[in-house]
Every structure is written in structure tokens, then in C-alpha cells.
């Protein structure tokens, strides 16, 4: 595996899930793989879980790790070619990428969608420059359109906690005060379609996800109808993907608090387990009672980020 962005990059999901279980039982099993190898983790945006879990995963595999926060101490980077650099950006990505690559064997990049230019975001403008110019395997740690390490951890969590062979999994939009990327719901939809689950998406009109990720998944605009009989409720806010109307891309179309996941929503489910990728705004996305309930999986779900990252880094190391 040379890049990790989409579900297909990882190979057969059942094998990846078996590897996840194997690594969870013995996280240092492949410690020899990373000997004298270095992973560089580059953050253009904030992170708690991805930052810690990916470092831990790298160390599980015996890798050295370097973490660079581009906006804290590094030179401000220009990302567009052809710009006259007379502003606040001191260095261009086109020099920075090969320089950074010269010190490492694998590169992880966190770079959120700008949410102003749909075409640039969906072309993964920044991540694709790393893929093109680094000469190293590159993995997304949430890039403009996808968060595959999260979706893989989510799938591992569902696999561990499912109480029926083919659970009903509902992805529900929920309100948030700020415009958020579509990366998490995009990847979640992509991975759920590839998994053996009954997958339903629910959101207000205008929030339709990009067909590249959501495919022909069942979309139900009536949230309570969608949640009926659910085994897993996966809540997330996202801004307008601009599928129906490109001018709305990245905008907040609704702050309807009736979409907040509360006890009344959970009551129509099949005693569902609650999931969210975190960080979460309590009493916007989900009420205190639901996130604190014994049916909430948010903590084991976050802990599984170490496992998904260990499997992914193992695949990248094996292909070096
Ligand atoms: C980010 C998002 O929604 O993509 C990161 C989630 C893992 N969330 C926020 O910016 C709050
Ligand atoms: N879920 C997730 O990726 O969290 P961070 O933004 O804290 O890394």
C-alpha cells in the first residue's frame, strides 16, 4: 500500500479486521517492521486523537516518529503554484515536501477542507501534492474529503460491539455552531457500504453527501424513521457538500436542534449503541445523558484509533 485515503487502499476488509484483532491482542507483534524507519506526521490543523493514536501506533511498530505542526513554529507554507509570494507565506510546499521527505520513510498528513472551493477540496489539492512530490507512502490523517483512519476504527468498534450478525447502522447529521468538513461522514459512508451492515444515512435536505462516498446508500430524510430499529447511531455534523447546489458548498444550511441525538431519538432504536468520532459538542450533537449512557461507545471507539493506525502503518511498512 503506497497511499491510504480510500477503503479499497487497504485490501479485503475481512483480512484488515482480522489483523486489527490480532494487533489488539498483541500490539507489539510487528515491532521489528519499523526498525531504523521514521514516520513524519504533519498537522495543518488541530488534533488530539489522531496525534496521539498515530504516534502510539508508530511506536508499536518500532518506528521513530517526528511530528510537525505546520502552524506552530514552521514557516507558513504556500500551497498554490504560480503565486507571487509577497504575502505572509515564507516557503512553498513544492520545496517543503521533498525536504521533509528526505528525513523520513512514511508521511501522514492532516489537512482539513478549506470549505470555500469545492473543486480544490475534492481534488485533495494538498494531500495529492504530498503523494506526487514526496516519493514516500502518504496516508491521510483527515484530509479534505476523507478520514479513513477514523472510519476504520469505527468499523473495528462496530465489529467488536455488534449484537446481531448484520446490524443496522444509522449515520445521522446533527447541529453544530461552526461549518465542519465532510471528511468524517464521507469516509464513514464509504466504509459502511463496504462492510456487511444495513446502512442508512439521515440529514436535512441540502446535506446530501458526495456520490463518490455515499454511492447508492439508503438516504432517509425523516430522522426518527431512519433511527427506527437502529443497532448503532453514528452522529456527526457536516457542512453543505454542495452536491445539489455548488454555491452552498461549505455553508451551514441548518442549526435545527430537533436533530440533536437525545433519549427520545434513542428510544425508537433497537437499544442502539451511540458513536461519534470526537471531539463532540455536548447538547448540540448529543445530550449529556446519551453520551454518558452505558450504550455510548465514544471512548472505546477513540481507543481503536491506535489499532486502525497500527494496521495501516503495518501495510505501509510492508510495501516499502
Ligand atoms: C473535525 C471535523 O469535523 O472534520 C475533526 C473531526 C475528527 N471536527 C472539528 O473541527 C470540530
Ligand atoms: N477523531 C479525531 O480525528 O480526533 P482529533 O481531531 O482529535 O484527531
Task: Please tag this protein with its features.
binds phosphoric acid mono(formamide)ester, Rossmann fold, five-stranded parallel β-sheet, 320 residues, 2 domains
Low-confidence stretches: none
Main sheet attributes: strand count, strand direction, barrel closure: 5 strands, parallel
Morphology call = globular
- Overall mean pLDDT stands at 98
List the helices and strands in order: EHEHEEEHEHHEHEHEHEHEHEHH
What does the oligomeric state look like here? single chain
Distance between the termini: 9 Å
CATH homologous superfamily (4th level) name of the largest domain = Aspartate/ornithine carbamoyltransferase
| Total domain modules | 2
Bound molecules: N-acetyl-L-norvaline, phosphoric acid mono(formamide)ester
Give the DSSP E fraction (strand runs of 2 or more residues): 5-15%
> What structural class should be given to the helix and strand makeup?
alpha/beta
Query: In CATH terms, what is the architecture of the largest domain?
Result: 3-Layer(aba) Sandwich
CATH level 1 name of the largest domain:
Alpha Beta
The helical percent reads 25-40%
**Strand order across the largest sheet:** 1-7-6-2-3
CATH fold-level assignment of the largest domain: Rossmann fold
Radius of gyration, whole Å = 19 Å
Number of helices: 12
The total strand number stands at 12
Structural commentary:
This protein is α/β, with parallel strands linked by helices and 320 residues long. It has two domains: 3-146 and 305-318, 3-Layer(aba) Sandwich (Rossmann fold), CATH 3.40.50; 150-302, Aspartate/ornithine carbamoyltransferase (Rossmann fold). The chain has helices spanning 13-25, 49-60, 93-101, 118-122, 125-134, 148-161, 183-194, 211-214, 223-227, 263-267, 288-292, 298-318; strands at 3-4, 38-43, 64-69, 77-78, 91-92, 106-110, 138-140, 168-173, 198-202, 218-219, 232-236, 273-275. A five-stranded parallel β-sheet has the order 1-7-6-2-3, with helices on both faces. It has a five-stranded parallel β-sheet with strand order 10-9-8-11-12. The chain has a two-stranded parallel ribbon with strand order 4-5. It starts with a strand and ends with a helix. N-acetyl-L-norvaline is lined by residues 142, 180-181, 183-184, 277, 279.
Amino acid at each position: 500500500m503506497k497511499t491510504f485515503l480510500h477503503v479499497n487502499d487497504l485490501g479485503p476488509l475481512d483480512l484488515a479486521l482480522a489483523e486489527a484483532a490480532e494487533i489488539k491482542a498483541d500490539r507489539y507483534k510487528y515491532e521489528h517492521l519499523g526498525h531504523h524507519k521514521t514516520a513524519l506526521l504533519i498537522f495543518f490543523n488541530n488534533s488530539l486523537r489522531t496525534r496521539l493514536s498515530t504516534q502510539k501506533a508508530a511506536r508499536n511498530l518500532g518506528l521513530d516518529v517526528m511530528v510537525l505542526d505546520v502552524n506552530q513554529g514552521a514557516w507558513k507554507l504556500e500551497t498554490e503554484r504560480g503565486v507571487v509570494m509577497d504575502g505572509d507565506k515564507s516557503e512553498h510546499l513544492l520545496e517543503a515536501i521533498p525536504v521533509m521527505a528526505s528525513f523520513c520513510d512514511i508521511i501522514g498528513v492532516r489537512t482539513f477542507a478549506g470549505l470555500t472551493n469545492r473543486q480544490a477540496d475534492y481534488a485533495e489539492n494538498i494531500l495529492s501534492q504530498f503523494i506526487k512530490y514526496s516519493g514516500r507512502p502518504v496516508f491521510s490523517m483527515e484530509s479534505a474529503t476523507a478520514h479513513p483512519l477514523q472510519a476504520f476504527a469505527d468499523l473495528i468498534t462496530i465489529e467488536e460491539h455488534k449484537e446481531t450478525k448484520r446490524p443496522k447502522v444509522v449515520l445521522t447529521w446533527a447541529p453544530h455552531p461552526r461549518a465542519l468538513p465532510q471528511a468524517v461522514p464521507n469516509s464513514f459512508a464509504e466504509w459502511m457500504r463496504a462492510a456487511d451492515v444495513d446502512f442508512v444515512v439521515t440529514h436535512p435536505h441540502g446535506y446530501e453527501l458526495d456520490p463518490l462516498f455515499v454511492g447508492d446508500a439508503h438516504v432517509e430524510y425523516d430522522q426518527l424513521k431512519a433511527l427506527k430499529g437502529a443497532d448503532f447511531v453514528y452522529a456527526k455534523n457536516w457542512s453543505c457538500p454542495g452536491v445539489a447546489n455548488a454555491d452552498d458548498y461549505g455553508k451551514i444550511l441548518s442549526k435545527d436542534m430537533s436533530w440533536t441525538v437525545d433519549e427520545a431519538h434513542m428510544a425508537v432504536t433497537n437499544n442502539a449503541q451511540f458513536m461519534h468520532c470526537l471531539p463532540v459538542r455536548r447538547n448540540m450533537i448529543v445530550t449529556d445523558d446519551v453520551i454518558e449512557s452505558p450504550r455510548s461507545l465514544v471512548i472505546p471507539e477513540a481507543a481503536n484509533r491506535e489499532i486502525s493506525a497500527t494496521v495501516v502503518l503495518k501495510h505501509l511498512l510492508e510495501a516499502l
